[in-house]
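Propose amino acids for all 128 sites.
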């Protein structure tokens, strides 16, 4: 068993599950989306991205691309939340919550693509 692959798979799956946990629920209801889960999803996604930098294969490049997309979506979602919570005079509204959750949904799609790639890579692995 390759410990590096286990750690890589762990962070890819954890990023996807944390993002899914945040995304699940009524899109405009702020009470159903734990902001700490969003920040945890972002942190784990950034760790997964760093782990993907060493892979020089074609599938590694696609892994990195999906991770960068997820990171960008989660960073923008976090900025929108912080803006609405701390700067906006309206505070956290249904519209701002919907924006944050929608951006998280985009990141979730990128995470799911990464998980599918991980499964494909695992299934097609040939021992030499």
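Proposal:
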């Amino acid at each position: 068993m390759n410990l590096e692959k286990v750690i890589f798979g762990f962070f890819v799956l954890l990023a996807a599950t944390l993002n899914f946990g945040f995304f699940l629920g009524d899109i405009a209801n702020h009470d159903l989306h734990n902001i700490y889960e969003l920040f945890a999803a972002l942190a784990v996604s950034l760790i997964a991205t760093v782990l993907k930098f060493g892979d020089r294969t074609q599938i590694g490049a696609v892994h990195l691309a999906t991770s960068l997309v997820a990171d960008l979506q989660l960073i923008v979602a976090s900025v929108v939340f912080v803006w609405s919570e701390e700067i906006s005079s309206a505070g956290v509204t249904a519209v701002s919550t919907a924006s944050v959750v929608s951006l998280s949904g985009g990141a979730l799609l990128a995470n799911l693509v990464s998980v599918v790639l991980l499964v494909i890579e695992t299934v097609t692995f040939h021992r030499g």
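The chain has one domain: 3-123. Helices lie at 3-23, 35-52, 58-87, 94-123.
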